[in-house]
Please model this.
Amino acid sequence: MLGMADEMLIYELKKGHMRLVEKRNNPYAKTQQHLKTLDVYDLLHDCAIIISAHIGKKGIQRLEERGVKLIYKKGNILKALQGAIKELKPYT
Model:
């Protein structure tokens, strides 16, 4: 689940090339507060696209309402990013 991840890896994608920009700690990873997705969104507010293995139903709606593109991939992050490039073409 996105909100339970200990850290978020922030990548930049330009012309089909990826580069890790930073790692952000998620202080909400072990919490269960109401509207947690909005707190996590504050951590990722500058990201246009989120790649995650799973996001809760309410979280999906909240993120999409804020204009975030969601892509679901499981496994190794680099392989997930490479596999998602086709879906990201309009954003690069």
Notes: The longest helix spans residues 77-88.
